[in-house]
Amino acid sequence: MKKTVEDIKIYRAYLELISYIEMISEKFPNYTKTGFVNVIKTSLYSGMEDILYAYKAFEKKDKLAHLNDLDVKLKMLKLYARIAYKKKYINIKNYEAWSRKINNVCTSLGAWINVCLKQ
Hints:
This protein has helices at residues 9-24, 36-56, 60-86, 92-118. It has 119 residues and is mainly alpha-helical. The protein has a single domain (5-25, 33-118), classed as 23S rRNA-intervening sequence (de novo design (two linked rop proteins)). Helix 1 packs antiparallel against helix 4 (92-118) and helix 2 (36-56) packs antiparallel against helix 3 (60-86). The two termini are 22 Å apart.
């Protein structure tokens, strides 16, 4: 049976991250929803696009380019989590959970990059 994008670990981990950030962003004050929350969600969904593009890419260099873009977006999501915590939009438990979910995606991303580099 052919593997689909839904079968890969990073896709499932990233869906979990999206679900969590969607839920947690409801805690943010209303005045942040058109600015800060939109920036977070734009980066978040753009990261999912990178996963899908990398999955569909035939050329190793194209795949790696999308995976590197995803890596940058994950680093930005870590920064947004830090800012949200420092601004007291989220508590320490939310910050830790957000960071843990990003780290789960990063682990899968690193494994995928290593596989690409060995090909």
